[in-house]
## 1
Amino acid sequence: MLIDIKNILLPLNGSGDLEAVMSVALDFARRFDAHLSAVVVGADPSEVATLAGEGISAGMVNEMIDTATTEAQRRAIAIRKAFDAFIHEHGIRRVEPSKIGSSAGDGVSASLDVLTGPAPAALTWRSRLADMTLVPNLAKDGDPRASETLHAILFDSGRPLVIAPPAPPKTVGKRIAIAWNGTPEASLALRCILPWAHKAEAVQVLTCQDYQRRGPGADEVVTYLRMHGISATAREFEAVNRDIGAGLLKAATEFNADMLGMGAYSHSRLRQMILGGVTRHILEQAQLTVLMSR
């Protein structure tokens, strides 16, 4: 049986608005009866170490914000405040990071931990023991380190990365579109999205002649999904103004998809950053939840 989602890594650095990512995190945690491993990365552990502990009142957090000496401190404290409000509002059981897994199966739980060192390395290491990592959408005016962290996890964790949409979605994972081009990256994404596909109302495999590389075709993917007890259809889409990424998003929208699974950077990241590419377009333009694997 496919391993279920039980540990969701939730990096909370670099985003001023956590509403959308928290909304998706709550949906996933309840769906899979999973633990939310929220983490904040602090360059100086003495600045933010107190953030992880319990027993800090809302008044104390507000006072900490007022007395913070750096923007990084204020951001980290504000994240702690938002996290506390989130778990309190939704009745999520909070556990200390050192006790994660000691009471598995007792429902949805959450923890907040402080990691030290450069954010990309610290989060990549932690993500290797998570079933998935959930990150906020790359806001145009957000912390520039967010993109570096996202790509570090995508390239070096060996686990799926899920990117929340810009705004809290009404649903996620009810209608799933799977981008397929026959590559190893697409194959891994297909495997990683199975836990969601099992619970979806409808699944569609999207392919394009200009996107397809050497490898199995979409009809074979439908057969593979059927072997896993998942009913799916296949559809071929066209690029929009020669832009495959735009065509993919258009096809996903026409399917009313609320989640997209895809392999990332089948071409090199450098080539896509310079010339553009499907992955880059999705990262910049997607309005739905996206699962990426590489």
## 2
Amino acid sequence: APASERPAATAEPAGKTKKHLPVWQETILLLGVALVLAIVIKALFVQAFYIPSESMEPGLVKNDRILVEKTSYWFGGTPQRGDVVVFKDPGGWLSPEEDAGPSNPIGQAMAKIGLYPSGGHLVKRVIGVEGDVIHCCDKDGRIRVNGQALDEDSYIKNTPGMACNGPMTTTCDWTAGPVPKGTLFVMGDNRSNSDD
């Protein structure tokens, strides 16, 4: 086709750049994106918590900060014996001091979106799952689940003078279970200081 019939190409003048947002708008946009990402990450992937008491020593010490991953339970996975789990205080296990979250307004706001550990949660180890019968204890002081003694030497706190691996408020002769459907039987690792 003759040059006169071709559409004219639109050319931008040399040196012209794209228009950028003002700094204040860009800052607000970036903060909004960061907030949405934080909420998505907390809801689906990981969440921050802190250890409220001495009940999980020696592995987890009071006021330690931890990140809990949630992906293990996405496709029907469930907690297994030996797993460490975090759950809401079912009512009255924590003292008011242990139950309190952050006290400053910035910490409180960050806790609401999962960027800072919040209060009101417990951290314990799964001892029994649905259907399990837990007995304390065998002749060596070990917790038994379904008749089998648990080997807890790698995580339980060794406390001289403890007669068994049961929690501090009980005798060394009790049975719990079978664990009801949809529930877990949990205990702290520091049995001499874990009122489970």
## 3
Amino acid sequence: MFEKYKYISFDLFDTLVFRTVSSPQAIFSLVPIVYNERNEREKIKEQQYYIERIYAENIARKRRNKEDVSLEEIYSYVNYPPNINEKLKNIEIELEIKNCVMNNAIIPLVQECVRLEKKLIITT
């Protein structure tokens, strides 16, 4: 199947890995819940965070004039104190990892590419 190709490309999300949430933005609903569970004194409003997180990403993309921006860039536009932003960003990373699962159906294809010593390209 892959013999005639030197390079094989796979998309990371929705091909190699699936998210266990309905959309990438669904993670944004979970972040403030986890944050509030872990912080007795400083609570944040869940809906407000969700809106701010989406807005911050849109601003970061517009300012960079690029589709892809880093979490650092996004969180520079989230309106919480730096120490809270850092906690929120780390929770988002943690939840992204916890809510990703490998696509077991594609593993044999990747293994075949490796066996054939193909150059693999993984994109997002």
## 4
Amino acid sequence: LKPDALFNYSLSKPSGTQTVSFNGEDLLVPRMDYSRAERMLKKIKKWNDENPGNIIKVRGHVLLWHSQTPEWFFHEDYDKSKPYVDKDTMNKRLEWYICTVLTHFTGEDSEWKGMFYGWDVVNEAISDATCTYRSDKENPNESLSEDRHGSNSSWWHVYESNEFIINAFKYAN
């Protein structure tokens, strides 16, 4: 359920884009791929249907994570060779992503409605090394142009503050 998995592990570029109507405007977004998650959920759903007195509930992990969000997600046209988008554009992407994932898995018409007991909204926003917000300069030996980060945060690079964390919780709510 991590962003890279829901983007089909397309780390160097999205596996396609589409234009959707979101909050009254057209928004270009990367294509989502729920197939891996749904394979696991189908097994859990089958178990739950066969064992109604001993059901398994699922914890969604995770909506926002610096190391599991492909670098292209932060750039114009979802192309990491282009400049970073601005905060307003990133907020639209973040809200779209969170709303799309939560609606797919927990919405009124979702096949998976009722299976989730909760969601991790943000993971590892605080650095183990510094005990402060994880920044875009956490590890000076790691380039932000890498497809996926071990330590550095492109979320911080775009926002230059903890605003993305606050917004993630607002959108998830």
